[in-house]
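Today's session is about reading a structure prediction critically. Students often jump straight to the picture, but the first step is always the sequence itself: look for stretches that repeat, for charged clusters, for runs of hydrophobic residues. Only then move on to the predicted structure, which in these notes is written as discrete structure tokens rather than atom positions. Here is the chain we will use throughout the hour.
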Amino acid sequence: MEWIHQFYEKQFQLMKGNGSGIEANHEEKLNKVETFADRPFRSILELGAGSGEFSVTAAKRGYNVTAVELVPTLVKHMRKLQQEYVLKGKLSTVCDDFYQLELSETYDVVCYLDGFGIGGDQDQRRLLKRISEWLNSDGCALIDIYTPWYWSSNAGQEMKFGSASRKYNYDFAGSRMLDTWFDSDNKQITQSLKCYSPKDLQLLLETTGLKLVDIQPGGAMDYETWEYWENAPLGEAMSYMAKLVKG
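Below is the predicted structure for this chain, in token form.
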């Protein structure tokens, strides 16, 4: 997993430079989390918090948030961002590896949005066991899971972002989405995430202390028209949000 630090720092530079603020889609993502959690909650642990827009949005709305991110550049932006808004709740930013991190608190909701699947099955199981330990007894984990059918059928798709470009591929043997970015000098970095069907996820959850209780399909891109559909059927969606509870 040596690619992780380099990829996310470079992706941040290519996509945002000095970064951006909270946008409508960050508010919508929090609305989705609130609806899918389906119960009042106060505390959130976000894993892989990136440049912090979701965590800042949640603290701005009044939640007490702990945001964990590995890449120092992204944590620096997150801390800068939290100074730009009035936060009704608390935001604690932690620069650490969530496979090694020790947390003394437990949380109502643990979120891992757009990033699950780093490493192999044993890495996922190890993280899921840790999530179970970080959850309150009546809490839930909400995790975005990439679907194998979407990414396998869209291998080879390319797109441009200013001077940068991006190409998707798929490792059929390993069931992994491959996301390669190219900068203006054609230097490339690749993200590799394991894809799981809901049945695969249920098998993965065995012995982790968590069980799957619900899923919510995500969106899909039509690459012919370049339209994004926010609520796609599961069989067409690029990901789904899994709701996990202790059990």
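Discussion point for the tutorial: Residues 59 and 106 are 17 Å apart (CA to CA).
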